[in-house]
């Protein structure tokens, strides 16, 4: 996951300056972000304090990590299913060959 360019306190500070009537372009220049980024930050974090913003970011990082882990587990499950299916097929082939040879060479 990409590292955020602004700290949590910077996000809250920029949004507070905007809410206080600051000019959008001057705020963007001060924090080194684009206007679109400021609008996205406002959409995501408007009305939050720094601790809450930090918690949201931690949860998003955990969500990303868990999604990545889930995809790895799905791949491992597919591999294990293929191995299991191939062993079942081999067992069936072996069993049918064994039964055939037992029937062919059985004492009469």
Structural account:
There is one protein chain. The chain is mainly alpha-helical and 108 residues long. The chain has one domain. Helices cover 80% and strands 0% of the residues. The protein contains four helices and no strands. It is rod-shaped and about 100 Å long. The mean pLDDT is 82.
Present the secondary structure layout.
Blueprint: H1 8-19, H2 24-31, H3 35-45, H4 50-104
Helix pairs in contact: 1-2, 1-3, 1-4
List keywords for this structure.
4 helices
In short:
The chain has 108 residues and is mostly helical. It has one domain (8-104).
Indicate the mean pLDDT: 82
Helix fraction bin: over 70%
Structural class of the secondary structure composition?
mainly alpha
Number of domains: 1
Q: What is the helix tally?
A: 4
Net shape: rod-shaped
Question: pLDDT under 50 segments (min length 5)?
Answer: none
- Strand content is under 5%
Order of helices and strands: HHHH
**Got a strand count?**
0
Major beta sheet, specifics? none
Q: Rg, please?
A: 30 Å
């Amino acid at each position: 996951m990409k590292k955020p360019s602004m700290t949590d306190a910077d996000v809250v500070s920029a949004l507070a300056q905007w809410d206080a009537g600051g000019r959008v372009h001057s705020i963007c220049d001060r924090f080194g972000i684009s206007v679109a980024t400021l609008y996205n930050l406002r959409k995501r974090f408007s009305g939050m304090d720094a601790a809450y913003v930090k918690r949201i970011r931690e949860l998003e990082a955990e969500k990303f990590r868990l999604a990545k882990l889930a995809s790895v587990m799905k791949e491992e499950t597919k591999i294990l299913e293929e191995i299991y299916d191939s062993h079942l097929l081999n067992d069936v082939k072996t069993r049918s060959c064994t039964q055939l040879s037992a029937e062919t060479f059985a004492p009469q």
